[in-house]
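Fold this sequence, please.
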Amino acid sequence: MRSRLAALTMAACAASALIAVAVMPISGQAPAYKAPRTKDGKPNLNGIWQALNEANWNIAPHAASQGPVLALGAAYSVPPGLGVVDGELPYNPQSAAKQKQNFANRMKEDPEIKCYMGGVPRSTYMPYPFQIIQGNKDIMIVYEYAGAVRTINMGKAVPAPADFWMGWSNGRWEGETLVVDVTGLNDLTWFDRAGNFHSDAMHVVERYTATSPDALMYEATIEDPKVFTRPFKMSMPIYRRLEKNAQIIEYKCVEFAEEVLYGHLRKQPIQGKGDSK
């Protein structure tokens, strides 16, 4: 009798253990986070966000290196980065040569130096915050750098009527993820300070997914048959700015770029503060 009870007890324990294992999440897979909802029942992504990585220096994996302005020493050196893309960018041979040329001339050619709007996806991971504002119908994203703004059409998708610095955005919800289809991008923006570039044929599909109350996972799939041999993806976490007074502050950088763009037209160059008179 005791043997039978012991056997039954062992069997019950084994069954309980199997049930426990069955309901436990797989190692490394936390239960999916579900964001708070807006009044219309959509995931609430409202807030001020900012990327925390080295992608604006170079979206590809890279080592630390001397910056382009030697006189600044370490103040403008390039920090190392793991990259936000998987391996090397799939340039075609002609475009790979163009990227190297861009890098060599980056102090004159990088659109960021000229205060041009960052475009998509670069504006997301430039070292400045941006704000997502969900309206009753559409969604607006306001970027601090260069005062860039774009509206995401959440209604019926509409073709881009022309090319724009920030492209033309049509959005939709896929469960917890905001998916934004971006077309109509011009070819005047770069991906980073390393000269990685694209053409006006680029098509970007962005995905914004809340992974916690204060973090989003951002993914962008890039397709550009003029420049790359295949589509590729970049991904990164983006974090909420938690300061009580967090806000997008006016940063109109045009005045800082005027001398770079038009200084050569002066009859006499302006002397810097450190120049002798």
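Helices lie at 2-23, 93-104, 106-109, 122-125, 254-262. Residues 13-27 have pLDDT under 50 and may be disordered.
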